Request: fold
Amino acid sequence: MYYGTLKSEVDKLIKNHNIIFDVDVIGAVSLKKYFLDKALTIFINPPTIEELEKRLIERGLNSKDDLKERIKKAKKEIEMKSTFDYSITNDDLNRAKSEIIEIVKGFLNK
Reply:
């Protein structure tokens, strides 16, 4: 299964708008490669893998097999966080949101 956003559509929108993508690590790396310094990447890090697993279990949306795959993928993605412009840890939701807002404001005002 393939999905995504057409570059031509993004190119049209980016002339007059700021665009936010919620993508996995591979998607973020691709977007950064395409847009270079016009893109800002922020990796949102869980406090710990154990906390991430607890949060996923509490949501109750994943089977045990899906949960194992999500955790496995998360571990690989965490190893790639150094490729992002910023990495924040989501151990306090309000603080994490404030950090993201400040990072984005700084990027937009440069």
